[in-house]
Amino acid sequence: MDIRQLRYFIATAEELHFGRAAARLGVSQPLLSQQIRTLEQEFDVVLLERTSRRVELTPAGVALLDGARAVAGEIDRTRDAVRDVATGRGGRLTVGSVAAGFNGVLVPILRRLRVESPELDVTLRLQPSSARLLRQIRDGTLDVALLRGAPATAGVTVHGLYDEPFVTYMPIGHRLAKDGSTAMALSELADEPMVLWPRSMAPQFHDVIVGGCLKSGFHPNVVSEEQSLEAQLALVAAGFGVSLQPASNAQLTRLDLTTRLIEPETLRCGMDVAYAVNRRPAALDTFLAIARDVIADDTLLNPAGDQRARGTRPVRST
Length: 318
Fold this sequence. Notes:
Elements: H1 3-15, H2 18-25, H3 29-43, E1 48-50, E2 55-57, H4 59-87, E3 90-97, H5 99-103, H6 106-116, E4 119-126, H7 130-138, E5 144-147, E6 156-171, E7 193-196, H8 203-215, E8 221-225, H9 229-237, E9 243-246, E10 257-261, E11 268-276, H10 282-296, H11 298-301, E12 313-314
């Protein structure tokens, strides 16, 4: 018995007419009759009572019809699932990112994935450091990751995805908060104490900030380095200093804080995408294609038209 014979039997049982069943299947009536006889011989039962006027299911035929439909349906579902995995519309994809990815570009990417690949099972992993994300790409824990300043790593492909400007978090009553609708020069922070991320978590990101300050004529007065955005913002709200963050993080704030955009060409940071050299599921290609579209379409990345997110730009094709 094979699936073709079961499909022949299902069509004949539903039509109760060999001619109509053969036409539905696109086969000759003698071939269909032969396959039904072979199936009956295999089960050693009569499945269909045939007369010159009609065809009827026997009790054994009724029992087989229920089972045959279940088997054929499961095979169809399995075939569709395999095709979905092969085309990137199904299967599993594990995505890791630093916090800025979750606060920015990942949301419109996931929104598109949900529409275009509804059968795809996506798992998200938040990691505080790019080094940890790279290790998880290499050991197979992650399929793809968004990270910053990724060094060359054996077995991992890394591409620049986009870069973005910075914002400054400050208390609502801060002297520099009065004109929040306009971008500010980085040099305006020369006399301000700063709360930053530790360099050990993202060396290149930290160096971009320090280097930008030096180019603007001052050395940053770093009063605290904290390992989470929440801790940094708490210190800013308490008056310990201001905090420079990627514009994508500006979607997260507190009621007692405000943000101002740093002049985009003064200070920028990049976001990279990384995946294993020898492990590239079809769903990864779907993810990368959607990511490129989202970065290219500012209305998808920034649907509210927030000026703080303006200036995000693609780096190069992945």
